[in-house]
């Protein structure tokens, strides 16, 4: 057998599925820094990032051991998506609990913008921002505009978008990615600054 360090992600997964725990250790070592940093950028809390990181690899272990991992050569993207979904789940759970930490002495729990009523200025900024975004969307190529509208305004999944437009899921995802990149580029060129 070749040196384990020379194996790609898919070969390591296959080796781990066959019972080689060293292969999993190599996979974890290969991705841990990038994945942890990604999670931390989302949650901004080291303890929560540690928990989500561990939960991510528990899901990886479970999926691989149950033989449900599809060998598509995209391990890094797959594990990142798991981590992202777990981070979102943690935010949803926190929001559902209505949990607000008062551990930070500098945090005034009652003096928060999201707890106050909108004033006319907030409403005008929101309307202007929405108009700016709509104008930028209209400048996108038709296929990108279509996917973006179906995803954000019709709340369709990428699977549903792919079926309705007659393309693969990857094509639908690619069109969304390019739509977002184009929107960012146009906003930067036009010096549109998001309202804070």
Notable features of this structure?
single chain, 196 residues, mainly alpha, Arc Repressor Mutant, subunit A, 2 domains, 69% helix, 0% strand, globular
How are the SSEs ordered, and which strands pair?
Layout: H1 9-17, H2 21-43, H3 46-65, H4 75-97, H5 120-138, H6 142-153, H7 158-165, H8 169-189
The secondary structure category is: mainly alpha
**CATH architecture title of the largest domain:** Orthogonal Bundle
Which CATH top level class of the largest domain fits? Mainly Alpha
**Contiguous helical run count:** 8
Overall structural domain count: 2
Q: Low-confidence spans: pLDDT under 50, at least 5 residues? A: none
Largest sheet: none
Spatial extent as radius of gyration: 21 Å
Strand runs, count = 0
Q: Measure the end-to-end span.
A: 56 Å
> In what range is the share of β-strand residues?
under 5%
Provide an overview of this structure.
By secondary structure, this protein is mostly helical. It folds into two domains: 4-97, Rna Polymerase Sigma Factor, Chain: A (Orthogonal Bundle); 118-189, Arc Repressor Mutant, subunit A (Orthogonal Bundle), CATH 1.10.10.10. The protein has eight helices and no strands. It has helices at residues 9-17, 21-43, 46-65, 75-97, 120-138, 142-153, 158-165, 169-189. The longest helix has 23 residues, at 21-43. It is globular.
Could you provide a short overview of the structure?
The protein is mostly helical and 196 residues long.
